[in-house]
Every structure is written in C-alpha cells, then in structure tokens.
C-alpha cells in the first residue's frame, strides 16, 4: 500500500475490492467445508478380507469382513483392518488436500495452514491406531464356533431351595 492520501472515490473502490476478496474467501471456505463434510473414503485390503469406510474426520464408519477371514489368524485380521484404516485415512488426506487447492488454494497462509493441519490429523499416528493385538498364551485354545453355546445347569430332585434365594450355592 502506498503512503498517499486516497480521495473518497479511491478509498471506496479499495474498500469494495477488499470486501469482494473477503466475500469470495468466505464463500470458498464454506464450499470447502461442505465438501469436507460429504467426504468419505472406502478402501479394501489387497487380500480382500476387509473393507473399511472412514468419514471426513477419519473416523471408522463402516467395516465389512469377507469369508477370507476364515483362513487367517486373528492377529493377521486385526493388523489387516488397522492397516486398511491407515490407507483409507491417507487417501482421505490426499483428497482433502485436493479440496483445499480447488477451493481456497494453498497459496495463502490460511490455505497452507488448513491443508497442513488436516493432513497431519489424518496421517498422524493416534492412540487408536497403535493398538497391539494380544496373542493367547495357550496355543491349544480353539476359537469359538457357532455351535459352542453355554449349557444350563439342570437342577436335580434334591436341589429344592423352597423358593428361597441362596447366593452361596
């Protein structure tokens, strides 16, 4: 900006131009926000065991497991789910960068800050991503099958409690 004193018409023109830039930035920011809110990414792992969907915040909103999991150990399934979520979040981060570039642009400090923050949030390691899957200590333990149901205790004839509740039996 120069040091000369503006006449009223020049000042009005500058003010209108400034207001126009602010209005455009506000509209572009709203468009960016609307597109962010609608954004979801669905990703499948390479072995076809899992399909995950994450929303615009990177939260898991969908999980589908296929019969391929029947051939895999629980720790492999868990690791596959977690890595597929990370891949979906990375793709989400890329798509949010594209939205920032297409709407407000990354040439402004605000655009760069938004792009950086959203990217860091989605690509960064969070506590829920560092979950370790614990292996059972006893390898002879078999997984439950659909025919494994709890059995009910059958009371014998001499097990009459005269309708009194006895918690110590």
UniProtKB/TrEMBL annotation:
GO molecular function: DNA binding
Keywords annotated in UniProt: DNA-binding
Extent of Acidic residues compositional bias: 129-141, 157-169
Keyword field contains Secreted: no
Basic and acidic residues bias (residue ranges): 114-128, 142-156
Pfam family, one: YbaB_DNA_bd
InterPro entries given in the database record: YbaB-like_sf, YbaB/EbfC
Region feature Disordered, mapped onto this chain: 101-169
Record-given protein name: DNA-binding protein YbaB
Organism: Actinophytocola oryzae
The organism's taxonomic lineage, starting at the top: Bacteria, Bacillati, Actinomycetota, Actinomycetes, Pseudonocardiales
